[in-house]
C-alpha cells in the first residue's frame, strides 16, 4: 500500500466525490487557495480545519489522516 499524506488523502476523497476545491473550501469555511495548498502538502492544517474538511466531505476524520507508513516516515525524519 502506498503511504498517503494528508494532502493526497484530501485530493483523493474530494475528486472521488466529484467536488471542486471551491465547493469544499466554501463548506469548510476556508479559501480555495488554502485547499489547493493543503492538497499539495504545503501546510499542515489545524485540527479545527481537519474537522471542518471532514464535515464538508462527509467522511470520518480518520479518512483524512496520513496512513501509518507515512506517519512512521515522518517520525524518523524528525
From TrEMBL:
Query: What SMART domains would the database entry show?
Result: HTH_XRE (SM00530)
Record-linked PANTHER family: HTH-TYPE TRANSCRIPTIONAL REGULATOR, METHYLPHOSPHONATE SYNTHASE
Known InterPro entries for this protein?
Cro/C1-type_HTH, Lambda_DNA-bd_dom_sf, TransReg_Diox_bact_type
UniProt-listed PROSITE patterns: HTH_CROC1 (PS50943)
Q: Name one GO molecular function term.
A: DNA-binding transcription factor activity
Pull one GO CC term from this UniProt entry. Answer: cytosol
Its name, as the record gives it, is: DNA-binding helix-turn-helix protein
Classification of source organism:
Bacteria, Bacillati, Bacillota, Clostridia, Eubacteriales
Q: Which residues form the HTH cro/C1-type domain?
A: 10-64
Name the Pfam families for this protein.
HTH_3 (PF01381)
Q: From what superkingdom does this record's organism come?
A: Bacteria
Q: Which organism is it from?
A: Ruminococcus callidus ATCC 27760
Q: Keywords in UniProt for this one? A: DNA-binding
Q: Does the keyword DNA-binding apply?
A: yes
Amino acid at each position: 500500500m502506498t503511504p498517503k499524506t494528508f494532502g493526497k488523502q484530501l485530493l483523493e476523497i474530494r475528486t472521488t466525490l466529484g467536488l471542486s476545491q471551491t465547493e469544499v473550501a466554501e463548506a469548510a469555511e476556508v479559501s480555495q487557495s488554502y485547499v489547493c495548498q493543503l492538497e499539495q502538502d504545503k501546510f499542515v492544517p489545524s485540527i479545527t480545519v481537519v474537522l471542518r474538511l471532514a464535515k464538508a466531505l462527509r467522511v470520518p476524520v480518520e479518512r483524512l489522516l496520513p496512513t501509518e507508513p507515512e506517519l512512521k516516515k515522518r517520525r524518523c525524519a524528525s
